[in-house]
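Objective 1b of the project was to move from sequence-level analysis to a structural picture of ligand recognition. The entry below was assembled by the postdoctoral researcher (A.K.) and checked by the PI before modelling. It contains the amino acid sequence of the target and the SMILES of the bound compound, guanosine-5'-triphosphate.
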Amino acid sequence: MDILLVGPSKSGKTSIQRVVFKKLSPHESFFLPPTMSVETLTVENNPNVQFTIKDFPGNKEFDAEADRAILEQTGAIIYVFDAQIGDIEESCGKLKDIIAEASKVNEKIYYEVFVHKVDSDLYQNDDQKMEVYNDFQREIRNELKEADINVNITFYLTSIYDHTIFDALSKIVQKLFPFVEHLIEMLNSLHTSCGVEKAFIFDIISKIFIATDSSPVDITHYEICSELIDVLIDMSCIYGKDNLKFDEESSTTIKLKKGDNADDEAGNTYLYLKEVDEYLVLVCLIGEEEFQKKHLINYNINLLKQSLKEIFAKK
Ligand SMILES: Nc1nc2c(ncn2[C@@H]2O[C@H](COP(=O)(O)OP(=O)(O)OP(=O)(O)O)[C@@H](O)[C@H]2O)c(=O)[nH]1
Ligand SMILES: [Mg+2]
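Corresponding predicted holo structure:
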């Protein structure tokens, strides 16, 4: 299953691919050369969560016949719009052309728009971000209506300088795997059976989450959970033996104290991480009272692990 990154030159496509999947630091992306031919990167940390990102040169145009083979393989097309210098009208025209050609070949493609680089002085507050987001949405809807094309598009405000890019890519990857629905149910049941406040299943290498429970994602929860993964990776790289960095026993607990009062335990939150499959970890936020029943939590996590194995075996 392929995810295509398309859009104008210098809009940030290669930076996105490198920052999320190759651990390039956002500042170093400044020196990336222009992409001259399509660059393919396959993410295959877990054998059941494999997908390919194809990074196209700027302003790639699609043709239903010439690009048939590519489009048949495509699960999602991400159009990257540079919110700092991009022209909305011109971009929407190009996106409409891409959708017109792609939808002739493959009706199942998801269309995703990143309103990208919303991190500069131009976008200091949320109102300014929402304005460009809404303008783009309105313009592309009009373009598609005029052309009589009926597809759904999802929009995201993104930047490589914060977690928004990971959040957006997580949501797109989730759309490509039907088993994610079962995972969400399992995570919801962790919430109901043991009071887990929020739970994510992460790919530890890319730090994108392939599932979370149905409660809304608070970006600070995502940030704190993904930083816990960094801690685990750093620790196991330093102290892990013989390249055996992660195994079934890998787990981490961090207690976050809420108030300054050392005696007041009631408001504490625990961050709890446990491996659930190859390179997949469950990270949960759990309240003080619920964490006292750790045996119940572990029991339910083991059930989740077993179900996950069964789901993967059936695939
Ligand atoms: N401020 C800001 N700059 C970004 C962001 N993402 C990418 N950039 C910058 O945008 C410039 C172009 O990035 P590239 O990733 O090379 O763009 P591209 O779309 O791959 O360009 P082509 O390969 O020529 O089509 C670089 O200087 C990046 O550092 C972002 O989220 N915020
Ligand atoms: Mg590029």
